[in-house]
Amino acid sequence: MRKLLLIIFGVISINMVFAQKPLTFIEVDTTTYQAYLISDWDKIIDVGNRAIDNNIDYYFLRLRIAYAWFKKNRYALAIPHYEKAIELNNNSAIILAYLYNCYQYTGRKNDAVKLANKYPEVLNEYFNKKINKKFTRVDFNTTQAFASNSNLQEEIIETAPTTIDGTQKLLNSYINYHLNIGHRIGKSIIVSHSTNLLYKNEFAYTLFNLYPYISEAQIIRQINYTIKVDITPTEGLTISPIVSYLNYRIPIFLEYGTGSGKNREVYQYNSFNEIALGIIASKYIKFFKFSMAASHAEFNSGKQNTLAGSIAVYPLSNLNLYYNLNGYLHMQHQGVESIKQFIQRHELGVKILPNLWMEGYVMAGEFNNFYDPFSTITYNSIEKYNSILGLNIIVPFYKINLTLFAAYKIYHSKSIFSPFKNTFETYNSKNISYQSFTGGLSWKF
C-alpha cells in the first residue's frame, strides 16, 4: 500500500513539474496538431490557452483553438480566435467562412453582413452563392387579440366620474398586420423598414362638457412606420438610431348611447400624429450581449423619456439556451407634473429540437404611454399595463432560410378614467385581461 501511494505521488509530482515547465513553440505545435488529428478538442483548448498565456501565439494555433470550440458548438468562444487568425492571414476562405457561420450561429447578424461585404468574392466563391445581397430579410405576421370584459361596460358607465371631463376605454378586440423589410447600405449598415396597420375595436365612455358619450364599439385605426438603422463600426458593436411615426384616427359619430349599435354613421374622424425616437448601443463580449438604450415620445398630449439597459447571456456560447433581462426607467411629463415607472422584462429561450425553439417571457411593472426602444413596440393606449406573459414558438427551415413563428400573450392591465387636463390623476380603475395570438414568417436572404 505504501509503495502504491509513493508511485501515485511520484506520477502527480512529475505531471506538476511538466505543467509548470514553460511551454515551447515545438511542444505547443506538436501537441495541438496531434490532438487535432485525434479530435481531442479539450486538449487543444487547454494547451492553446496556456500557450497564449506564455506569449506563444501564431496562425495555426489560433485556427486549431477556434476549430476546437466550433466542433464543441461553442461558437461565441470560437469567434475571437477566428478574428485573430484573420488578422494573421486574411486571405483564407475557410477561416472567413467559419467566422461567418459563427456570427450567424450566435445571432450576430450585423457582424455577419459586415464580414460578407468586406470579403464578398472570397465568401461568395466558398459558399457557391451570393451571400452579400442587397436585401437581408423580410418578415410578416398578423396578430389577433380578444377580450372578455363586456360585463364591465355597465359598471364603468355607473361608476365613472360625472364632474370631470375625460375618457375611459375597454378593449373588445384588435387585429394588427406587421411587415418588415431589411436591406444593407454599404458594408456596415443595415436599414429596417417596419410597418404596422392596427384596427382596434373598443368600448369608450367619454365625458365632454360634462355630457356623457357612450360608444359600445368603435374602430380605431392606427398606422405605425418605423425606420431602424443598424451601424456596425467594428466587430461586436452596433449602434442603432430609431424613428417611429404613428397616425391614428378616432371616429366621431352622429349617434351615441347604449344600444346605438356597431354600424353607426360616422360624422368625422379626429386624426392624431405622434413621433417616437430611440437609440440603442449593443456590444457582444464572448457569451454576453450588453445594450443601453434611450427613447423619447409624445403620446396622448404628454412627453415620455425612457432609459433602458439589457443583458443577454448565452451560457452554451450559442443560441441553444439564452436568457435576456431588460430594465426600464420610464418618465412621463405633462405640464409641471411628472411620474416615474419602473419596468422589467425577462426572457428565456431554449432549443427543444433541431428545428424547434421555444421562448417564454414576462414583462412586469405598471406602465402606459410607453415606447420600448428594444422591440420598437408602442404602448400608446391610456390603459395601464400590469404584466404581459408570452410564449413564442420558432421553427426554422435552414435550407430555404425560412422561419415560421407563432406567439401567445396574456395581458393583465387596468381600464382607467383619464381626465383630459391631467392624465396622471386617474379614476375608476378596473382590472381587465385579454389574450392575443400571432402567426408569421421570416425570410432571410
Notes on the protein architecture:
β8 and β9 form a beta hairpin. About 30% of the residues are buried. The strands form two sheets. Strands 1, 2, 3, 4, 5, 6, 7, 8, 9, 10, 11, 14, 15 and 16 form a 14-stranded antiparallel beta sheet that branches. The termini are far apart. The protein folds into two domains: about 110 residues, Tetratricopeptide repeat domain (Serine Threonine Protein Phosphatase 5, Tetratricopeptide repeat, Alpha Horseshoe); about 300 residues, Porin (Beta Barrel). The chain has nine helices and 16 strands. Helix content is about 25%, strand content about 50%. The chain has about 450 residues and is α+β, with helices and mostly antiparallel strands.
Share of helical residues: 10-25%
Q: Roughly how many Å is the radius of gyration?
A: 28 Å
CATH topology of the largest domain: Porin
Structural class: alpha+beta
Low-pLDDT windows of residues:
3-19
- Specify the biggest β-sheet: 14 strands, antiparallel
- Kindly report the oligomeric state of this protein: single chain
The secondary-structure element order is HHHHHHHHEHEEEEEEEEEEEEEEE
- Tally of structural domains: 2
CATH class identity of the largest domain: Mainly Beta
Shape: elongated
Number of strands: 16
Beta-strand share of residues? over 45%
Q: Write down the overall mean pLDDT.
A: 88
**DSSP summary: helix tally:** 9
For the record, the CATH architecture of the largest domain stands as Beta Barrel
Report how far the terminal alpha carbons are from each other.
68 Å
State the CATH superfamily name of the largest domain. Answer: Outer membrane protein transport protein (OMPP1/FadL/TodX)
